[in-house]
Amino acid sequence: FRSQTSSIIERTKSALFVHLWNEIYRRSGVDKTLRPAPGSFLRLMADRHPVEGWRDDAELADGEPQPPNWR
Hints:
globular; 3 helices
């Protein structure tokens, strides 16, 4: 995921908004109470637009965020 961050930033730099499809996260088993992994696009957005209520940080393995359980 971290390796895709710069590409996502480039593709969305002129976007007025980014639509995150809740159903994709739900079906993939993403725990939305965890703050996104450091270095990810979602973490950059979470840091830029802070909110309270995160339970913890998303887990990392070998320095890379764990991908969701895509089906």
